[in-house]
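G., the chain you wanted modeled:
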Amino acid sequence: MTALSQEEAFARIRLLRSPNIGPVSYRQLLRRFGSALAALEALPDLAGRGGAQYRAAPEERISREVAAVRASGARYLFHDGADYPVLLAELDSAPPILTCRGDTALAARPCVAIVGARNASAAAVKLARQFASDLAEAGIVVVSGLARGIDGAAHQAALDGGTIGVIASGIDIAYPPEHLDLQEQVATRGLLLAEQPPGTDPLARHFPSRNRIIAGLAAGTVVVEAAPKSGSLITARLAGEAGREVMAVPGSPLEPRSQGCNQLIREGAVLVQSAADVIELVSSFDGTPRSAFRESAPGFEALPEDLGEAPADVTALLTTAPVAVDELIRQSGESPASVQLALLELELAGRLIRHAAGRVSLSG
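Predicted structure as tokens:
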């Protein structure tokens, strides 16, 4: 891409921080209007067609954010920039803008995510350290979420070889507090990434979003120890949906913290017992995972420039129950572009929710 002007970069940040704008609608707006500056001008009209008045994020708020990013020693990564992580950019839900500290070249190297329980057993923590150390020694960058337990152990062991930390807070906030020093080491010796604006506390709803970035950065995700319904299993499922390798370390069926890993293996994740197993999978990864954990989510046609009017009957097909966009296209008989325009208008008006795997529903 050509270098962004300061005005367009500012407009992109403002566009993404505006109400009801997510990764999908952000990219559709850029494709439709060619620039964030033009998209911002069009937002009130589009939202009005969806049935609502609209105000973009205040410029003053964005100015404060940019100043805070600079003050924290961070910078922005835009989705179409040369230094944006290539594997992450393949996701339909990839963050359009990240803030970062550290060496972005690490994300261009082979990456493996290591995740697991926060209250991990001593044996699992030791194993995570061994995995991470061996992977780093083999030239593979270790990605994790800087949480307690498995995450922290993996980062610590991979500092010398290369590690990427993805946090659920703003780039200027350390969480958990006891990982303040570790987070700083990751930022100065590795790479630290955040999707949320600076000053944002790590709220519960931010962690699944953080997990999709972890999964998206890596060719494969290894779950070392996890209870059922844990955040680590969310990361594994997101990796599977992205078409990446999903790997799990087996454990005793009598240990609750191993049940999640055993469940993953039963559902198609690859059983791994050493870093050598992981290296073998990742080194031969060609975009088709050996794990049969989950098929990748379908992609959808980009919005063309000439869209015309959005069909009204698309709204009538929607309820609060999620439905696939391709099903809406099939049932409405409209073109993919027309259906996507209708969904975009509803989203901007705050009437649409986007779900995983290309599904949408009306908001409650």
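Residues 44 and 54 are 5 Å apart (CA to CA).

Shout if anything looks off.
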